[in-house]
Amino acid sequence: MKVHFIFPLAKANWPLVQLLQKAIPGASFDCGGLSGLRYQNRIQLALKLPKLIWFAFRSGLRVARSDVRPDLICVSSDMELIGLVMARLISRKRFPIALMGFIYTTRESAVINALRRSYFRAVLSQTLGVICFSKFEQQYYSELFGLANTTFISTLFGGVFNKPDDLEPGNSGYVLSAGRSGRDYKRLCEAVSQLPVQAHIICDSAFALQDAQHSANVTILRQCYGREYIKQLAGADIVVLPLKNEKISSGQMVLLDAMALGKPVIITKTATSVEYGEHMKTLYFIEPDSVDELRSAINFLMDDPGLRSSIGSAAKAHYEAHHSIRPFVNGLVNVIEQIVVKNQKAAPGLGSAHGS
Questions:
Q1: Which of 96, 119, 144, 152 is most exposed by smallest CB count within 10 Å?
Q2: What residues in the chain have per-residue pLDDT under 70?
Q3: Which is nearest to 356 in space by CA: 12, 131, 93?
Q4: 168: which residues sit within 8 A by CB, 6+ positions away?
C-alpha cells in the first residue's frame, strides 16, 4: 500500500510521522513544519489558510509528476484538499484523496448553514474517504452529505502527550477549562460564580468568551501555550469541559491531555464524548445546558479527593491503552487500509475510481 501524507504543520521527526512510516512501509510524506494556526478571530485564521492551500498544491504537483502513483493521498483540512484538487486539475492526473479528522460545525444562521453544507458537500465529493473521530459522526455525516462515492469512516482520536520531565502533576486548588471550539464558557462561569473555588480558563478566542460573564474567582488566560498550558493542566484538581454542540467532536485534545496526566475530567455528555470514557470510572459526564448539574459535579469532586484520584488513575490507564500515539496510529492505518481496499475492489487495476 502506497500512501502519501501531506502534513503542512508537522515535522519529519514527529512520532506520528515516524510511526506511520513504520506501519506503512510504502508511505511518503510532505512535512512543512509551518507554524501553528493560532488565531484570536476568524479574520486572522482566514489570512493563514492560503499557506495550507499552497503547500498542498505544490505537494500534489510533485505527486502528479512522480513515476510512483499512490493508492491514496491523505490531508488534514479542507484547505489542503482544495490545494490537491487544484493540482489534480492543472496536472490532469487522477489521484485518490482522503480527508483525516473532519469536523463539521453549524452556525446560527440558516442561510450560512445551507451555504456551508453546500460547500463541504462539494469539497468532500472530491474524496474517496473522510475519516472522523467518532462512530456517531461517521453515520451523521454520511446521512447529512449523502455522497454515494465517498466513504465516511471513523477511528478514535489520540496522539502523543509530551510532559516535561521536570513537571509533575499536582493539586493546586483550582479547576481548569481550555479550548476555543464548541465550549460553553458562559455556563461554566455561572456555575463557579457561587462556589468557593478558583477557576482558570485557557482560551485565546474573543468569540468563544464573548458571553462569559466571569466573577472574581475566574482567571482568563488568553496567551497560554506549550509548557505554560501543560503547567496549568498539571496543577488543576479537576478539568472541566462544558460543550455546546451535541453532534460534533469537540474538546477531545484537551480531554486526552488531561487523561494522560491522570486528571479527573467533567465533560458534557454528547453523542461523541460518550465514546471516550465511562461515567464515574474514567470520566464524569454531565447533561447539556444545566448550570446546576455542572455546579454540583464540581462541588462533588472537589469534596472527594479519593474519587478524584480513582477517576484520574483510571483515565490515565484508559488513555495509554486506547488514545496514546501507538493505538491512534494503528486505528488510523486500519481505516486508511479499508478506504484503499474498497476503492481497489470498486475499480480493479485503477489507482482511483473517483474524482478527476
A1: 119
A2: 35-47, 347-356
A3: 93
A4: 234
Angle between helices 110-124 and 135-145 (to 10 degrees): 100
pLDDT of residue 36: 61
178 vs 232: CA distance, rounded Å: 10
- Rounded CA separation 12/86 (Å): 25
pLDDT number for residue 205: 86
Q: Are strands 97-100 and 72-75 parallel, antiparallel or unpaired?
A: parallel
pTM of the model: 0.88
Query: Would you tell me how many other CB atoms lie within 10 Å of the CB of residue 70?
Result: 22
CA proximity to 26, closest of 64, 60, 70, 56: 70
Closest CA to 258 of 277, 272, 286: 277
Angle, CA 264 vertex, CA 260 and CA 265 arms, to 5°: 95
Q: Please give the distance of CA 20 from its chain centroid, rounded to a whole number.
A: 18
Nearest alpha carbon to residue 243 among 84, 118, 121, 134: 134
Compute the distance between CA of residue 299 and CA of residue 180 in angstroms, rounded to an integer: 24
Q: Scanning the structure block, which residue is given the C-alpha cell 478506504?
A: 339
